[in-house]
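Convert to structure. Protein one:
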Amino acid sequence: MQFRTGLSVKPKEIQRNGLVIFTDGTNDVTPNQADCEAYGYTYNEETQTCQAFHYSPTTEEGVRNTTNVIRGQNNFTEKGTRNTFILGQNNTTKGDNKDSIIVGDNNEIALGVNNATVLGSYGVAQRDGEIVFGGGGFNGAGKGYGQSSIISLSGTTTNATPTKLKVSNSSSTEVIARASTSSFQGFEAKLIGVRTGGTAGGSVDDRVFINVAGLAHERAVDQTKTTLGSHGTVTGWTGDVIFTAPNDMFFAVTGAANMNISWSCTLHLYEMKV
């Protein structure tokens, strides 16, 4: 699960008793009520803890992974995993996952991530709808140190203000990755924009197809943009990888004033940690 915009903590795991453990990316932390509720969990004021569910013996029985298909050795699905297929060994879903697929070994789907697919070995799915190709253990470094993935993004604009696209048709998730001193992201985005309305000059169905490619590290982005095709009035239409505090990485599109434009982006992300 990615950090929510404006927050410096996120859920790490759900314990068997329903308590949600948070992390700042390095250390376990105790969430406050706002942190807890921002991720859709319930804050218990009496115990000052964050809960995914109220624990009881019947709850334990009710949330067993009866809808999953698991084939292979040492595969583990944490609580709340459902409708998920795992083929291989030493794979893990971190909980609160649904409708996902893992094929390979030593792969992981992060807490709260749905509709994800992980193939290969030592890959980590961190975003809804993501397709991950694990690149192996990266000389024993571990999961997620060398991998590539495909992510779908979409959104709309009505003006010339940069607008962050949402991940996998989410109603709220915009964060693609999080910068750190050890993380590098190469990317290539195929972006299509189509006008659907508005009062500015030009016509409905004006359109553009843009390729945006580059390298991101520590909130610094080196990128190039190439228009692969266009039709009609598309002046100023573009897309960019951007960073905002606290080190969140987004893909933003810019349209034009008084133009209603729908955007769809297929983002290829190549990640490495050192």
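Protein two, convert as well:
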Amino acid sequence: MSTTTSRKQHLNIRTTQMEMTPRGTVGGANPLAEDFAGKLQEAQSQIEALQQQQAEVERQKQELQEINEAKEDFLHGQVELHEKLSTAVTAMDREIFATRQELDELEQVRTSFADHLEKIDALNPDGWNNESLRQDLTRAISVLDLAEDEYEQAVAHFSGGRSASVFGGGSKPKRAASGSSEESEFLTMLRNGFAFNLPVVILGTFALIVYFLK
């Protein structure tokens, strides 16, 4: 009797253990599986974060490269434009200085020419006296010679500049400095005029003599 009872109790214990095991392993949660799944999910999240970081780094790298290229273009354009503007400013400074200097010289020449023009306009051969005809003619020729000398000097001075066209492209051949040919020609014409009017002068003189002798 005792033997039979012991066996039954032993079988009951094994049955209980067999009923408890499925509930712990098959029917319940597996800690190892849950831990592996969690680590896999965590690794996947880390991979995605690393991929996002890498994409951000690539984006920043591309942006930095574009900024550097734009900076290089700016520096190149800055140097090139600075050189152009500096060269232009220097050239304009020289041009302005030369223009002002030439303008001042033109103003001086204009004043001198206006003075000569006034003196030439004041010459009136018809009003010269016969007694001082030679002196008046010599003085008039000197006025013309001086004016012509200054004119030709001005033409030579401005011939290489922008004001060369002011003088009509140059001067005519200069008159003889002594004025002997002009004086001779003028005196010849004057003598011819006296010769032409000589009979009238003689008759007039004779008439005056007769008038005063009466």
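Helices lie at 2-25, 31-122, 133-158, 180-213. Residues 1-27, 176-183 have pLDDT under 50 and may be disordered.
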